[in-house]
Automatic annotation (TrEMBL):
It comes from the Eukaryota. This is (African queen) hypothetical protein. Keywords: TPR repeat. TPR repeats lie at residues 227-260.
Length: 290
């Protein structure tokens, strides 16, 4: 029996559809962090010119893929769309799926069709029921994955991982001092500062200076002498043409470590702006008292 094709998810530039071929167990549906075993077949990818390749960043559609998917642990946009599809499937279900991607003008960029079977689902505890140790381990995992993605020039994917790591840390709060010692609390704070810094770095790559400034300021609330946060906030201030604030931050960074190369270079870049501000200020003062 073949069911009617349904729209799983829709955005103007992307549409996910499926047609159920064999229904599954409606009592067992994957959700965030559930472990799925899937089987793919008859995969076809095409664009307006004909057959084409699927992006190499995709883990699901490229070799080697062992059929195991943890919902929420994928990085490429195609794999994340498959995660969305899986969360609309039941254990044992077999469907014909279609992923369609278009540009802002509505022209077809790529279409992927495939047969997918959700072989098995291992249910996990809800995140709200996780222990603090598991939450912290998960945060560390997403942070390290994010760092590697940024190194691979996949900044958006890296930012998404850092955000997910922060979500895990926030889930630990409020910290129960009776079950978590002071040393581990310091680790939580250190991780949070690193994540704010990493997310600020990602925002700066897209010249989102306001967002980067906010993230650096959050990091500095936990660690007022964090040189990376001061340096990156200085860059954000420059992007917002707030040169006095930028100069203050970079001088603060140099007072902490006079030999920090990045801060020294930024100070040299900023000096002409700061001197110009002083000249203008002195000129105004002279006119006032002339």
């Amino acid at each position: 029996m073949m069911f009617k094709e349904t729209i799983v998810s829709f955005r103007p530039e992307r549409e996910i559809r499926k047609t159920i071929l064999v229904p599954g167990d409606y009592n067992l549906v994957p959700y965030e962090d559930a472990r799925c075993k899937i089987r793919l077949g008859d995969v076809k990818c095409s664009n307006r010119a004909g057959p084409c390749e699927i992006e190499p960043e995709s883990r699901i559609f490229n070799i080697p893929f062992d059929g195991n998917v943890i919902i929420g642990d994928m990085d490429s946009f195609i794999d994340r769309d498959v995660e969305i599809l899986l969360q609309r499937m039941c254990c044992g279900e077999i469907s014909r799926a279609n992923l369609t991607y278009k540009n802002s003008h509505g022209d077809l960029i790529k279409e992927i069709t495939f047969r997918i079977e959700l072989v098995d689902v291992t249910e996990e505890q809800l995140i709200s029921d996780w222990s603090w140790a598991r939450l912290f381990e998960s945060a560390a995992h997403h942070k390290e994955r994010g760092v590697q993605l940024v190194k691979d020039k996949r900044v958006v994917d890296g930012f998404r991982r850092f955000s997910k790591a922060m979500k895990m840390l926030i889930a630990i709060e409020p910290v129960d001092k009776s079950s978590i010692d002071d040393e581990r609390v310091k680790e939580f704070i250190n991780m949070r500062v690193k994540l704010y810094n990493n997310m600020a770095h990602c925002q700066l790559q897209f010249e989102e200076f306001g967002a980067a400034l906010d993230l650096c300021s959050r990091a500095l609330k936990y660690d007022s002498e964090n040189i990376k946060a001061l340096y990156r906030r200085s860059i954000a201030y420059v992007g917002l043409h707030m040169y006095e604030e930028a100069w203050t931050d970079i001088q603060r960074a140099l007072s902490i470590d006079p030999n920090d190369k990045a801060s020294l270079m930024k100070a040299n870049e900023l000096r002409p702006h700061f001197e110009k501000i002083n000249e203008n200020y002195n000129s105004v003062i002279k006119k006032m008292f002339r």
